[in-house]
Design brief:
Layout: E1 3-8, H1 13-23, E2 31-37, E3 42-48, H2 51-58, E4 67-73, E5 88-89, E6 95-100, H3 106-115, H4 125-140, H5 144-153, E7 159-165, E8 168-177, E9 182-185, E10 190-193, E11 205-208, E12 213-218, E13 221-226, E14 231-232, E15 236-238, H6 254-260, H7 262-270, E16 274-275, E17 280-281, H8 290-294, E18 298-303, H9 305-322, E19 326-330, H10 331-334, E20 345-351, H11 357-368, E21 372-377, H12 383-387, E22 390-393, H13 406-425, H14 431-452, H15 455-465, E23 470-475, H16 479-494, E24 497-502, E25 519-523, H17 530-542, E26 546-552, H18 556-561, E27 564-568, H19 581-594
Parallel strand pairs: 18-19, 18-20, 20-21, 21-22, 23-24, 23-25, 25-26, 26-27
Antiparallel strand pairs: 1-4, 1-10, 2-3, 2-4, 5-6, 6-7, 7-8, 8-12, 9-10, 9-11, 11-15, 12-13, 13-14, 16-17
Helix pairs in contact: 3-4, 4-5, 7-13, 7-14, 9-13, 9-16, 13-14, 15-19, 16-19
The protein binds 6-O-phosphono-alpha-D-glucopyranose.
6-O-phosphono-alpha-D-glucopyranose (G6P) binds near residues 304, 305, 403, 404 and 608.
Length: about 600
């Protein structure tokens, strides 16, 4: 949450910062602001709204200067308005600061600062930090770097921040605790950002800042220290992001582009890992932990949002093929309970961004209890990928649309590969069945391509129900999490209330909601629970509900009773469950478009939730 960009070098900072903020808007878009050092002055401009609103505001203003920083906000403390927008300036104008995270003891610190006659303009925790740094700087008579470090020793909470000091205009000071920051290293120029996308066209050399570390950055170099003043040697890494992957590539929105990218992203997820001819799966990132994985007494999967839904599909796949007990937990709940975990457990943390605060905290808890912790993550170099014992990257490519699509299907692909690999090694799956499962897995991208060809039919259905106020999604077995995910997609981007339910549970409550205005989306492909789900469809129709059914191609039985059918190619194993989310993604996408919603940046949401 909140995107941060900083630049120091020979080029004009403003265009670099603005372009970078646009790439980070998935992290929040309540307000945006920049601070640019013109040489004589630091000009601060900030505005409620999107980065484009800020650009309008800065037309004809002085935006010159080769040192600058910018922020795009997802509001925590204080409503989204111009005053609460970042950057914040300390009371005596000595420091300018942008911040991502939450200063948890800000109320205590604010009280102390007020007692020292400090006045506050905004409601933010960030302004408290700006003033604390300034107070230490002015009254402690220390350098800006020392003031920042000392102030951070007083702070409880999460921060990724960049600070400018008016008296030391040739440097930027960045610091991190729990909120990500990466520094890009160029030729006599440096970039700072919440992730590497703002500067991929300038450099592929990066340093990920660690927790409680501070970077002092000038044109001549960077120095990294802990907040306690111990020197840290920068660990320079090379990143590999293709600039085309972060552009819209001819699509109107990132979300639609990402839906259509799924055949490719799933192929990339399996590349070099699934060997059908030789009948095996190899996940290099898990080699070191294979003995623990094979002997796991229990697998606990943790995640949030869509990643949690992927975990629920994983539960079915693991139980079916790996034959190991699985529990799936919301990371946010798991971390605050007192879960019973021991060294024979394997905890799998799933996160697209690898930066979700609750998921990272769950990992720490699991590690403390001695469990083996495995990550399934999309963003290379993210905190999750660095803090787990082992892991598998999804290789979905950057996902920018706030509503997750290709991350989900690639996460499920990874879970399927893991379940099959363990199942085979445990001799739970016979050779022949294994071969069939691998063929199914490998056929998924082609079957998704085929499903995407019915987009115009789905668009027509979406047009009919765009004004509905409620939707119900039903599924059985591994289609229940698909129903949850379908409902989540609709809620997130179209603001229509939607609920996912196990189909059999409908009669224990939701059936009371069904009338002739209620669209009920049922996942009813030909699989184990087929007859039962046909009965559920009849129950909905008997109450005049509108049935939109996701069915296996050619299913005449359901076609004769449902109002609409959305077909997916026939599949024979639980792995095919991935396919059924595709029509639901498109359905929610078109409904949101018909309702005039911004699908890439839905209200109140952010993609990378780095606060609890
Ligand atoms: C936010 C996003 C969701 C995402 C969830 C978990 O809520 O809007 O799309 O599923 O965070 O994110 P993660 O990066 O951990 O998968």
């Amino acid at each position: 949450m909140c995107g941060i960009v900083g630049y120091i070098g020979q080029q004009d900072a403003y265009p670099i910062v603005i372009k970078g903020l646009k790439r980070l808007e998935y992290r929040g878009y309540d307000s945006a602001g920049v601070a640019i050092n013109s040489g004589n002055n630091v000009n601060v401009y900030k505005r409620k709204g999107k980065v484009s609103d800020l650009e309008q505001f800065t037309l004809n203003k002085d935006i010159s200067g080769c040192i600058g920083m910018g922020h795009t906000r997802w509001a925590t403390h204080g409503i989204p308005n111009d005053v609460n927008a970042h950057p914040h300036i300390s009371m005596n104008g000595k420091f300018v600061i942008i911040h991502n995270g939450i200063i948890e003891n800000y109320a205590y610190l604010k009280k102390k600062m007020i007692a020292r006659h400090y006045e506050f303009k905004s409601e933010t925790d960030t302004e408290v930090l700006a003033n604390l740094i300034e107070y230490i700087y002015m009254f402690g008579n220390v350098s800006a770097e020392v003031a920042v470090r000392l102030a951070l020793t007083k702070v409880i909470g999460a921060y990724g921040l960049v600070v400018m000091c008016i008296d030391e205009p040739d440097k930027l000071i960045a610091a991190r605790n729990s909120s990500p920051l990466v520094i890009g290293l160029g030729q006599k120029e440096y970039f700072i950002a919440s992730d590497a996308t703002p500067f991929v066209e300038y450099t592929d050399q990066v340093v990920y800042l660690d927790n409680q570390n501070v970077a002092i950055i000038s044109r001549d170099g960077i120095q990294i220290k802990t907040i306690k003043n111990d020197i840290v040697n920068p660990d320079i890494k090379k990143i590999d992001i293709d600039i085309n992957e972060i552009e819209k590539g001819g699509f109107n929105d990132y979300m639609l582009k990402e839906i259509y990218e799924q055949p490719k992203s799933i192929t990339d997820t399996m590349r070099g890992r699934v060997f059908q001819n030789d009948n095996y799966i190899s996940l290099g990132g898990l080699l070191d932990v294979m003995p623990r994985l094979m002997n796991a007494r229990r697998v606990i999967i943790v995640g949030c949002g869509t990643s949690w839904h992927a975990g629920l599909v994983g539960e079915y796949l693991f139980e079916e093929y790996a034959r190991v007990p699985v529990e799936v937990e919301y990371a946010s709940e798991f971390r605050y309970r007192n879960p019973i975990i021991n060294s024979e457990d394997v905890v799998i943390a799933i996160s697209q961004s690898g930066e979700t605060a609750d998921t990272l905290a769950a990992i720490q808890l699991a590690k403390k209890c001695g469990a083996c912790v495995i990550g399934i993550c999309n963003v290379v170099g993210s905190t999750l990928s660095r803090e787990t014992d082992a892991g598998v990257y999804t290789h979905a490519g950057p996902e920018i649309g706030v509503a997750s699509t290709k991350a989900f299907t690639t996460q499920v692909t990874v879970l399927a590969m893991m379940a099959l690999m363990i199942g085979k090694n445990k001799f739970n799956i016979k050779q022949e069945q294994y071969h069939e499962l691998l063929s199914e897995l490998i056929s998924i991208p082609t079957k998704i391509e085929h499903t995407l060809q019915s987009a115009s039919k789905i668009e027509e259905v979406a047009r009919l129900y765009k004004d509905s106020s409620n939707f119900l999604y039903l599924g059985r077995g591994c289609y229940y999490p698909v129903a949850l995910e379908g409902a989540l997609k609709l809620k997130e981007i179209s603001y229509i209330h939607a609920e996912g339910y196990p189909a059999a549970e409908m009669k224990h409550g939701p059936i009371a909601l069904i009338d002739d205005k209620m669209p009920v989306v049922v996942i009813a492909t030909k699989d184990k629970g087929y007859e039962k789900i046909v009965n559920n469809i009849q129950e909905v129709k008997a109450r005049k509900g509108i049935v939109i059914a996701v069915v296996s191609e050619g299913d005449q039985t359901i076609a004769s009773m449902a109002d609409h059918v959305l077909e997916v190619p026939v599949f024979n194993t639980a792995i095919g469950a991935i396919l059924t989310i595709i029509p639901l993604q498109l359905l929610s996408y078109y409904i949101a478009i018909f309702r005039g919603c911004n699908v890439d940046q839905p209200r109140n949401l952010a993609k990378s939730v780095t606060v609890e």
